[in-house]
Write a structure and sequence with these properties.
single chain, alpha+beta, 23 helices, Transglutaminase-like, Bact_TGase-like, transmembrane helix, transmembrane
Length: about 775
């Protein structure tokens, strides 16, 4: 065949061959292919967002957060998909999605603020209030936090925004790995700050979903981005199972292999928690605007004692209108006995074993008077025990002796409240709500003594208010007034409001923070959990001292029934939030110095009381498989991970290499397009013979089943003109690229699954079949 037989290049460039393959978007098959790829990719990203939401199980106590979060996040994914189907441009789609996100947040978290189906200004106000609370409490909050807090709202909003960004990166910027970056940032953030809960399982699931999402996006964007797997509907359906299996194998191998690597259980180079391997810190701030009600089932500590009590941590006497804070006070190092036992009291010995409680404040029955075989700091004004050095540590044991007052109602009724310790205990901010002071006056109008007024306040709260953990967040800037208006709340609101209103009557009052008694278990110890965190008010009586009252419905301090009239109660252990009676242990704890045998210094002991399972030490493998892993399994896991990484990296490298030839001349581009087509045909065993011209080669292979001879002839014509006559322009070069793409895609459709899988790993096949 002579070069002079070539047809004019210009004519070929301006008129498409009648049998040239149309683009994917222009045919029914192409439309179905695009829809299939978009649907699969959308589902993959939605699944990735779902697993990212599940990853917050390490941040929140319980699973109540997951339902509302998934409703909002999946709703955002659905909105993004619908807007893409409607071909909405980004400047319309993004604001519309943000509006849908706000409506979904209002529907799930602030339904009482909505006007019909739409949120209102009050919704926005409450959302901002919750976000401000999160900002204030974030520095001191330690996971797991309450699922009823503003943290849940923030986590949901952040995950939904990440879902929107992932969709935009994937379908508007045609990204692949970029699409998983927003959710990856959130997942890593939750992992860094969260507790060690389902760590391996959640991480493996997230990695599998992320790898699968990247692979499916590569399939979906193949034609538009010249991807390595292919863009037809058949290619997507064929390659999808392999991509999913590879992603699952890689994630499973990492989940199995990672914890067994040397040093996997050692302490990290950077300690993101900085809380001595403990999980919760009881905040000393009782904010009546707060929504951080900790209902977690995390065990914080256990107590062996002869009788139940409230395990008090500290007292808060500074009030700024919404927040009760610790006052400045003198602190003294003490050991042994540090306070006298007042008359009219009895001693209670407590053997305290720390499990998950962090911080420096040691809980004990009020008021501590002696610590056995150890030393602590003592703040007399607030009745606080402070553990020195690193604070509370897991598995540490303390024996504390407390003098518990035997209080008589008649004595309280005859007592005055004129000389509280530690300065003024009746101070209020100048803008204290007049309505709150008036309510206190009205409630106590029939009482003539301090005790009578305190009891009247207590009973008013207990009978006229409702204990409610689902109270709406951030009602207004004046939380006290709103609490009195709605008459719904929980211990922090009840105790703070009681103390503030008592002060408005001139009664010295403060707020105590600590825990209810906890659950007596088979070992005879009180097991105290996060759900037992509590706050209650204390009133000063000159002849007695600080006396606790209990305004919170469903709660009652053991031993105080005679003057409060409230039976011992606390939150139930079944997660219902309903009160349950407090029971005393069957065995009797040792008293006096007999208890010292199990006591350790605050910074030392690793001994564990009977019935308590010791926690694993750093570096200890608790899986039971340490040292017994067959080498071949380890090598197999490494092999699978390496193969998966190679399959993901190979097309990226080849595309970058091809991008380096973008500045070729039209003749060079046309020649290279013909070479691409012949490499692909060689996979079918139809490589050109040494003596063949392009047209002769096209004539021979055009007779093969499944190949379009006119498409091959058209490409051979422009290649012949370029190779033998240097005749090519930009249009003909672009046409040659399109024809070569069609040849490669046709070959990909004709080869079997085995060859297609080989092309993921064999660079020679990958080059030949790379569109």
């Amino acid at each position: 065949m002579s070069p002079t037989n070539a047809r004019p290049v210009a004519d070929e460039a301006t008129t498409a061959s009648p049998l040239s393959a149309p683009t994917a978007a222009a045919t029914p098959n192409g439309t179905r292919s695009a829809f299939t790829g978009s649907l699969l990719a959308s589902l993959a990203l939605a699944l990735l967002s779902t697993v990212t939401a599940i990853g917050f199980c390490r941040v929140f106590a319980g699973w109540q957060f997951l339902g509302p979060m998934l409703t909002v996040v999946l709703g955002v994914h659905l909105c993004c998909a619908l807007l893409r189907m409607l071909a909405a441009p980004a400047y319309i789609a993004i604001p519309a999605t943000l509006a849908v996100l706000f409506v979904l947040l209002a529907w799930k978290y602030y339904p009482d603020t909505m006007t019909g189906p739409l949120p209102g200004s009050l919704t926005w106000s409450q959302l901002l209030s919750d976000l401000r609370l999160v900002r204030e409490q974030f520095p001191s909050a330690v996971a797991p936090v309450s699922t009823l807090s503003g943290f849940a709202v923030l986590a949901t909003a952040a995950t939904a925004l990440a879902a929107m960004l992932s969709d935009a990166f994937a379908f508007r910027a045609y990204g692949r790995a970029e699409a998983v970056v927003p959710t990856a940032v959130l997942f890593l953030f939750a992992a860094a700050l969260g507790a060690d809960r389902d760590r391996v399982a959640v991480t493996a699931a997230w990695l599998a979903c992320a790898l699968a999402a990247v692979a499916i996006l590569r399939l979906t964007h193949a034609r538009a981005e010249h991807s390595w797997i292919g863009s037809s509907r058949r290619a997507i359906i064929t390659a999808l199972p392999v991509a999913v299996v590879l992603a699952g194998c890689a994630a499973a191998s990492g989940a199995w292999f990672g914890p067994r690597l040397p040093g996997a259980h050692e302490k990290g180079l950077i300690d993101t928690s900085q809380h001595n391997d403990v999980t919760q810190v009881l905040s000393p701030l009782v904010d009546i605007r707060s929504r951080l009600v900790d209902l977690s089932d995390t065990e914080l500590f256990t107590v062996a004692a002869s009788e139940p009590n409230y395990w008090r941590v500290t007292g808060l006497s500074l009030f700024d209108g919404s927040t009760w804070k610790l006052p400045d006070g003198d602190i003294a190092a003490v050991s042994g006995g540090f306070a006298g036992t007042p008359s009219g009291s009895h001693e209670v010995v407590q053997q305290i074993h720390i499990a998950g409680l962090a911080g420096s404040l040691l809980p004990a029955a009020y008021s501590p008077v002696r610590i056995e075989d150890g030393s602590v700091y003592w703040v007399r004004d607030t009745g606080t025990l402070v553990v020195p050095n690193d604070g509370l540590r897991r598995a540490a044991n303390y024996t504390v002796v407390s003098a518990v007052l035997d209080i008589d109602a008649n004595e309280l009724n005859a007592s005055t409240s004129l000389s509280p310790p530690g300065g003024s205990m009746t101070g209020l901010p100048v803008d204290f709500p007049l309505s709150a002071a008036q309510a206190a006056t009205e409630v106590t109008a029939g009482a003539t003594t301090v005790y009578g007024k305190a009891l009247a306040l207590q009973n008013w709260f207990r009978t006229q208010f409702t204990y409610d953990l689902t109270v709406q967040r951030g009602h207004s800037d004046d939380a006290l007034v709103n609490f009195l208006r709605t008459r719904r709340g929980y211990c922090e609101q009840f105790s703070g409001a009681f103390a503030a209103m008592a002060r408005s009557l001139g009664i010295p009052a403060r707020v105590a923070v600590g825990f209810t008694s906890g659950d007596v278990q088979a070992d005879g110890r009180y097991h105290v959990f996060g759900r037992n965190a509590h706050a209650w008010p204390e009133v000063w009586f000159d002849s007695v001292g600080w006396v606790a009252f209990e305004p919170t419905p469903g709660r009652g301090q053991p031993g105080n029934q005679q003057y409060t009239g409230v039976e011992p109660q606390q939150v139930s252990s079944d997660g219902s939030g309903l009160p349950t009676p407090v029971t005393a242990p069957t065995p009797t704890a040792p008293t006096g110095s007999d208890a010292a045998t199990t006591t350790t210094t605050p910074a030392a002991s690793t001994s564990v009381p009977a019935g308590t399972t010791p926690p694993p030490t750093p570096g200890e493998n608790t899986s039971g498989a340490a040292g017994g892993t067959p080498p071949w399994i380890m090598l197999l896991g490494l092999g699978v991970m390496t193969a998966a990484l190679w399959a993901l990296a190979l097309p990226h490298v080849l595309r970058r290499r091809r991008a380096g030839h973008a500045d070729l001349s039209p003749v060079q581009q046309t020649t290279r397009s013909w070479q691409r087509a012949t490499r692909a045909l060689a996979v079918l065993g139809l490589a050109p013979l040494p003596q063949e011209t392009p047209l002769e080669h096209a004539e021979r292979v055009g007779r093969a089943e499944g190949l379009d001879p006119r498409m091959l002839h058209e490409l051979a014509d422009v290649a012949t003109a370029a190779e033998y006559g240097d005749l090519a322009d930009a249009q003909s070069a672009q046409r040659s690229v399109e024809l070569a793409d069609q040849v490669v895609q046709t070959v990909r459709d004709l080869i079997g699954s085995g060859d297609r899988i080989k092309s993921w790993f064999d660079p020679r096949l990958a080059v030949a079949l790379l569109p």
